[in-house]
Amino acid sequence: MASNLKYLAIMDFTTIIGLEIHVQLQTKTKLFCGCPTTFNPDQPNIQTCPVCLGLPGALPVMNRDAFALSLKTAMALNLELANFTKWDRKQYYYPDLPKGYQISQYDLPFSSKGWLEIDVPSTGETRRIRIIRAHLEEDAGKNLHDESGRGSDSQVDLNRAGTPLLEIVSEPDLRTAEEAKTYMEEMRLLLLAIGVSDCNMQEGSMRCDANVNLHVHENGETIPTPIVEVKNLNSFRFLEAAIEFEVKRQCAEWQRTHIRMGAPGGYKTTRGFDPNRGVTFEQRGKEEAADYRYFPDPDLVPVTVTDEQLVAIRSTLVEFPAARRRRYQQQLGLSAYDARVIADQGAEFANYFDAVTSLCGDGKQAANWLTQDVLREMNERRLSISEFPISSALLGALLVRVTKSELTIKAAREVFATLLKEWEEQEVAPSAERIEAIIKERGLATVNDTGAIESVVMAVIGRNEKAVADLRAGKMQAIGAIVGQVMKELKGADAKVVRQMILDKVGIS
Amino acid sequence: MSLVTSTTSELLGQLASRSVSAVEVTQSYLDAIQRRDGQVGALLSVTADSALAQAAEVDRRRAAGEAVGALAGLPIVLKDNICTQGIKTTCASKMLKDFVPPYDAHVATRLKQADAILLGKANLDEFAMGSSSENSALGKTVNPWSFEHAAGGSSGGSAAAVSAGFAPLALGSDTGGSIRQPASFCGVVGLKPTYGRVSRFGLVAYASSLDQIGPFARDVSGAALLLDAISGHDRRDSTSVDAPPTLTAATVEQPLSGLRVGIAREHFVAGLDPEVEAAVRRAVEVYKSLGATIVDISLPHSKYAIAVYYLIACSEASSNLARYDGVHYGHRATEFSNLVEMYKASRSEGFGDEVKRRIMLGAYALSAGYYDAYYLKALKVRRLIRQDFDAAFQNVDVIASPVNPTPAFKLGEMTADPLKMYLADIYTISANLAGLPGISIPAGMSASGLPIGLQLLAAPFEEEKLLRAARMFEREHGPAPMSWKSGV
Questions:
Q1: Are residues A184 and A227 in the same domain?
Q2: Catalytic status, residue B154
């Protein structure tokens, strides 16, 4: 790898990356039959029927819900929708493909030409990544191999066969592994926000293939190197690592061979990624070896989309994460960091934030609470925001007292912590009544009554002759003990007011 | 003996009046099968026990005054590419010789609901690919009229079964003439409905955009009755048309007034057997005598029909038959060293020559670099062929033509020359490409004693008109004679 790094240093090149993201749509049933789509690796082949098993005589029928979710996704990705789309058969032999073809979309996908904007963390730059197309297809099953090549048989699980899969193909607009990762993260947030997929990457609900090559700049010329497709990356980390590895590998390859894309030996190749070793490895050579013999599936009718359908689907779209971040920054004055933390937690968390903000009328205040207190408590208890015992209405009611100066932030934190403690230890459900009671019991309400503060200050001064003497002698740190004792008696008092009054009374100004 | 020579409506009348029981009817046909199918070879399996049990149940319900279906007690055989739950469905292929479907085809379900009695499964050309039933890997069907002659195909077993008195009714499938041609060879009525009229769910696909299930019967009204029982929308088949079942049996006896019969000039050309031409011309005269107007029409693109058909059908077949790879079900070779070898060996052993030929033709036509020139071009010409018919049906109600250029050919006569066999599909193929309904009805006998069929085609979804027109001729010409009397 040291030699690769050397090339990196001396070569002038641009990395070109395009992603094909596969997303499993969150439908109850498969794309062309009524079987459930539940992830169920422990009971293979039970979520099957003649249709998804590809038995003789079985016929596919399109799942309208899957198509509606696809349209919704396409709208969120700013894709142009075709008013006529059809199904094609992509033909190849593999044991996990029971019909010998996959029903997919070839030349007339239901959507094309869209984009997704990403905010690249390291540069702060906003980049618009163009999307070539998104099409719907059925997933294959899963082969379980005896890797030794001999010995026990391979096995096939067709539970997943026929699950609706959306393939979203980007233009090669991505330039770094970080951008690719950010793009995929943003895609995930968006799809989660609009509720079309659970995007569970461990279960394979979201995975991607990365097409990577270099544009080498040499002697005033830009030379593309052969494209490498790294298949089946199912985590952000792997995606980033695979691209970083490929860039180094392709640099070294270029230095060694000087083979450009399309030249003899310059074919597109397919590689896999080994997460344990952090390297990619060759899977298939010449791209032209695969001729899928696409043709329109005669078992399915073309799909037309009506304006009414589009209007109905559009009405179910929610605010996208990127728009939310922008709104938080521009309208609520949040920092880019806070805006991202809140929006990226998902729609439910962000909705909670929105509710708290509108109740307390202070976005920054709400953001501080959400990004610090609420997130910390959630994480410690491994709770989701929907499981969090303090509702947005309650937190809003608590914070509105802070914005109205009825409660100090410190006092509000005490209420917040007490509510959680009661809930945890005594199973007392947090409520408006409990907030009221805790404030009363602990005397947390802000004391604005100067007379009351004055009498306590005088009493404390009377009891602390030494501290007062020190103070008079110029030892300013002595005031701390006096303030502390006052505050102990008057929890809701403003410490700044107390401090000033002590100085006045002692005669130092 | 009289039971197996009866027409569908005669049998139904006797069953309804309880002058004969379903068990007696079923037993008569089973006896006929027992006696003669050893020679004819129409059936690949006979479900005697379940048939008799089903018949007894129909009798019980009828005796108890319970409601029974429209075909209650009528025996039927199904082409063995129509899935029947728990009963082997082989497609006459080594590949599926032990395949037992876990589900019924839509038509099989409908027949059960109608209380028809399933007697067995009929032989066919392997995966319905062929015109003589000689491509079956599992049996040899001969023409009941002459054992040296072919029963036709691919639904040869179904046609021969009805012709030989093994069942009053049968179902076949028609992709390029596979119902009409064997019907004409065997002297029975065979109807290919409009594409989409009958659900294909459970019909093992040969060429999905062309395949259509349809009835065989001894007379037109039997075919009408069976069509009514199996037609109608099925949501499991996306290409099934959202229309209620047909009601053709109710009107089939009513002649059409002002009937316009089209004669296409492209249909009477070199290669047409003079006896067949004469039979068709005589039929046209019959229509004239019934007051019909005879209209000369042209179908200019029909000369491309065979080329278009074999491109489209083979392309679809190459894809439809990809699933038979030895992995999940069907024949798997025992000798192989790796996955690709297993695919190769299983498919090489499991498929017959004609199936392999069509898979190769289709895979070639769909290959990168050839798709546009072959498959796509074929789709375009297909549309032109449909437009020819659309134009023709502006001026005529039905088009009369031969079914096949010749009466039944001798077994083995065509097998050496697949192209010659393909070219004989000239009259039937266009109806599949255009999605039209078509019927073959007996229209005479050749000097050598072989049946000759008359084909009538109608516009899409005009089955009612087609059947009424066919019945007009049948009434004048007389019903189909029984083959076994004249030779078996």
A1: yes
A2: yes
The CATH number of the structural domain formed by B2-261+394-486 is 3.90.1300.10
Q: Which of B9, B131, B132, B154 is catalytic?
A: B154
Q: Give DSSP secondary structure letters for B185-202.
A: HHTSEEEEPPTTSS--TT
Containing H/E element for B375? none
Same-domain check for residues A205 and A74: yes
Q: Given the residues B132, B133, B136, B178, select the one marked as catalytic.
A: B178
Which position among B79, B94, B121, B465 bears the catalytic label? B79
Domain encompassing residue A470: 450-506
pLDDT at A6 over 70: no
Buried b (16+ CB within 10 A) or exposed e, B393-402: beebbbbbbb
Residue B1 has pLDDT above 60, yes or no: no
Are A134 and A88 in contact, with CB atoms under 8 Å apart?
no
ipTM score for this prediction: 0.95
Q: Where are the alpha helices (DSSP H) in B71-122?
A: 106-113
Q: Is residue A89 part of a domain?
A: yes
Residue A487, domain CATH: 1.10.10.410
Assess whether B146 carries a catalytic annotation.
Answer: no
Checking A147-155 for CB contacts under 8 A at 24+ apart, the result is: A154/A95, A155/A44
Domain boundaries, chain B: 2-261+394-486
Cβ-Cβ contacts under 8 Å, A295 against chain B:
315, 319, 366, 371, 375
**pLDDT above 90 covers what percent of chain B?**
92
* Same domain, residue pair A362 and A298: no
Q: Give the gap in angstroms from C-alpha B243 to the nearest C-alpha of chain A.
A: 16
What's the gap in Å between the CA of A46 and the closest CA on chain B? 14
Q: Which residue of A has its CA nearest to B91?
A: A56
Query: Are residues B157 and B167 in contact, defined by beta-carbon separation less than 8 angstroms?
Result: no
Domain assignment present for A311: no
Which of A55, A62, A89 minimises the CB distance to B101? A55
Model pLDDT for residues A469-490, shown as the tens digit of each residue: 888 888 888 888 888 888 888 7
Question: How far does Cα A27 stand from its chain's mean position?
Answer: 20
Q: Is B348 on the interface with A (CB under 8 A)?
A: no
Q: Please check whether residue A151 touches B, CB under 8 A.
A: no
Q: Does B275 touch chain A (CB under 8 A)?
A: no
With respect to residue A316, please indicate whether it lies within any of the assigned structural domains.
Answer: no
Active site residue B93: no
Backbone CA torsion sign across A296, A298, A299, A300 = positive
- Both A164 and A47 in a single domain? yes
Residues A290, A347, single domain; the answer is no
Q: Is residue A469 part of a domain?
A: yes
DSSP class per residue in B422-470: HHGGGGTHHHHHHT--EEEEEEEE-TTS-EEEEEEEESTT-HHHHHHHH
CB spacing of A299 vs B367 below 8 angstroms: no
User: What is the average pLDDT across B23-38?
Assistant: 96
Residue A54 forms contact with B (CB below 8 Å): yes
Contact B261, B397 (CB under 8 A): yes
Indicate the residue among A441, A459, A485 that finishes a domain: A441
For residue B464, the distance in angstroms to the closest alpha carbon of chain A comes to 26
The answer to whether residues A156 and A47 belong to one domain is: yes
Residue that terminates a domain, selected from A441, A461, A483: A441
Q: Which two tokens stand for residue B40?
A: 């004819």
pLDDT value at residue B487: 39
pLDDT in tens, A234-254: 999 999 999 999 999 999 999
Q: Among partner residues B207, B209, B238, which is closest to A61 by beta-carbon distance?
A: B238
Shared-domain flag, residues A136 and A277: yes
pLDDT band for A287, please (50, 70, 90 cuts): very low
Same domain, A180 and A296: yes
pLDDT tens sequence across B232-252: 999 999 999 999 999 999 999
Domain count, chain A: 3
